[in-house]
Amino acid sequence: MKKVVLIGSGGSGKSTLARQLGEKLKINVYHLDALFWKPNWVGVQRNEQEKVQNELVRNEEWIIDGNYGGTMEIRLNAADTIIFLDISRTICVYRAFKRMLIYRNTTRPDMGEGCEERFDLKFIKWIWNYPKTSRPEILNRLKQLPKDKQVIMLKSPKEVQLFLGKV
Questions:
Q1: Model pTM?
Q2: pLDDT tens figures, 36-48
Q3: What is the CATH number of domain 3-158?
């Protein structure tokens, strides 16, 4: 595990697991949200996202968390390990709502500077619909990966903790 991609719904625990893995493995962690959101929630153009990710994946070791489906192939192709946090939407919505309360009017550690946490109904709806809208596409992409890639699917917080204990 030297080149790790973490994907999953908002609130699934990608950033937390990325930090924990980074500490255990002594590998740099890159949060795509921190790289691709400018102050006041201004998104970075796709060509800049591609450029940044192409540079990141050239490194010998890395952990990258985030979805960004339009540029996911860059990470999937370069990774040796893909971790899909397939956590239930009720847990993800609860975590996202809790995170909104904890970081309200401040910037989360894994978010772009100047992007203050706020209640975002559109984001909550995206999380709720993730199992129907995004999950099938993710599963399809994972099935098409070469057999030399290690794909790890974690379906509950308990599975995540058991996985971390084995790392």
A1: 0.93
A2: 888 888 888 999 9
A3: 3.40.50.300
